[in-house]
Structure formats: structure tokens, C-alpha cells
Amino acid sequence: METSFLFFPQLNISASKDKSYYKITKSTIKEEPHKASKPGAKQKRNRLSLLLQKPEFHEGDHGKPGNLTKAASVSPEEAVKWGESFDKLLSEKAGLDAFTKFLKTEFSEENIEFWVACEDYKKSKTAHELLPKAKAIYETFIQKDAPKEVNLDFQTKEVTSQNIGQPIITTFDAAQNTVYRLMEQDSYPRFLRSDSYLNLVKGRNPSRPTLRRRSRSFTVNDFQGVRPDFTVW
């Protein structure tokens, strides 16, 4: 019975709490939860560190020229073809996407958005689809103080406004052609001169900044006569 009391001191009523075994057991029980919590806390910190390293936590370059065609996978040969004509650029999805992002940096994306809306409008299969689409385009891009009002001459805007009540497939043709010429003569040449386009032509990844050599702070002459100190090794 004495042996069992030693292994299970809590059953020994006469056992003294001052015995060393009781003190060791008590301290061990208190320390175990503390030790067990450390790995959990460490894992939480590791997960937080990995989370903060994800790309979405470091985005903030929206609209910057270096990121215009970040998502596009375009070969230099394909990019070169965009320079052949404005129509060639807009006929390809990657080209349209790159040009749209470029216009966003110039705060003139309403022009390409209007052109795309007109292209979609002309694909309407029934006359029943034309009226709601025409109204939406007119209220968004053409009417006075529209949220994305495009730059149209008075005559073109007036003719378009008169045809909104009974729209047909060609209702926006004059306005679309005006905006098309504006982009072709003004925005398109600047796009071809932009760094984002030139990087594509040269096969560079626009999402990665070009490495630059650090400015030389010291010259070879600065170290003449200086003996190396191998004690640091």
C-alpha cells in the first residue's frame, strides 16, 4: 500500500504537500499547457506571414503604365501587328484589353467603352432588344452630363438623340465613327509610343521592373592600400 501511495499521492490523505514529488508533479502540470500553446502560436504566426506574402496584399499599382498588360500573354510578333493599324489592334482581344488599360491611365476609357457598347448593340438579334440597349447607351455616354459622356460634335449628338425613340441597328453609327476616329488619331499613336507597348514588342514582362545598376559610391582607387581583414571569417 505504501508503494501505491507514492505513485498516487493524491490518494494518500496523510501525504504532505511539502514532499518534493508533489511539488515536481504540480509544477509539471502547470507548465504543460503553457508548452503546448507555444507550437499553436508559432503556427498562427507562420500562417499570418504566408498570408501577407500573397500578391493580393501588395496590389496598389492599378493604372500605372508598368502594369497595363500584366495579365495579357502576348508574343512580340503579335504586339508588332498591333502597330499595323488601329483596326488590327481592336480586332484582337489582347490588343483591345491592352489599349483599354492604356486609356485608363489617361482617364479617357469612356471612349473605348462606348465603342465596345456600340459593337454589342449592333449584334442585337431582334428589334425588341434595341430599345433598352439604345436607352442605356444614350444615358451612359451621350446625353448631357452623362456619367461617361463622350466628346461628340453638336450635329452628331443631335441626330443621335432624335433617333433614340425608335432606334435601329445604325442609330449609333455616326457617333461610334466619330469616337473611333478620335481614338485612332489621338490615343492610338500615344499607345504605340508608350512603355507598356514597347515592352511587349521587345518581349519584356511589364509586371517586372527592369533591373538597374546601382550608382557606384566607391571606386577602385578608394580601396588602394587597404589590407583585407581575415579575422572576420
List the SSEs and their pairings.
Layout: H1 2-7, H2 20-52, H3 76-82, H4 86-91, H5 93-105, H6 109-121, H7 127-142, H8 154-162, H9 173-193, H10 195-201
Overall description:
It comes from Hemiprocne comata. Mean pLDDT is 74; it is low at 1-38, 44-71 and 208-220. By secondary structure, the protein is mainly alpha-helical. Helix 5 (93-105) packs antiparallel against helix 6 (109-121), helix 6 packs antiparallel against helix 7 (127-142) and helix 6 (109-121) crosses helix 9 (173-193). The chain has helices at residues 2-7, 20-52, 76-82, 86-91, 93-105, 109-121, 127-142, 154-162, 173-193, 195-201. It is elongated, with a radius of gyration of 36 Å. It has a domain at 76-202: Regulator of G-protein Signalling 4, domain 2. The protein contains ten helices and no strands. The longest helix has 33 residues, at 20-52.
Provide a brief overview of the structure:
With 233 residues, the chain is mainly alpha-helical.
The CA-CA distance between the termini, in Å, is 65 Å
Give the CA-based shape: elongated
- In CATH, what is the class of the domain at 76-202? Mainly Alpha
Q: What is the number of helices?
A: 10
Radius of gyration: 36 Å
User: What structural category characterises the helix and strand content?
Assistant: mainly alpha
Q: Report strand %.
A: under 5%
| Biggest sheet features | none
Helix fraction by DSSP (H/I, runs of at least 4): 55-70%
Q: What is the CATH superfamily of the domain at 76-202? A: Regulator of G-protein Signalling 4, domain 2
Average pLDDT figure: 74
Could you give the order of the helices and strands?
HHHHHHHHHH
Q: CATH architecture of the domain at 76-202, please?
A: Orthogonal Bundle
Number of strands: 0
Can you tell me the residue ranges where pLDDT is under 50 for at least 5 consecutive residues? 1-38, 44-71, 208-220
At the fold tier of CATH, the topology name of the domain at 76-202 is: Regulator of G-protein Signalling 4, domain 2
Protein name: RGS18 protein
Domain RGS: 85-201
InterPro entries: RGS (IPR016137), RGS_sf (IPR036305), RGS_subdom1/3 (IPR024066), RGS_subdomain_2 (IPR044926)
Keywords: Signal transduction inhibitor
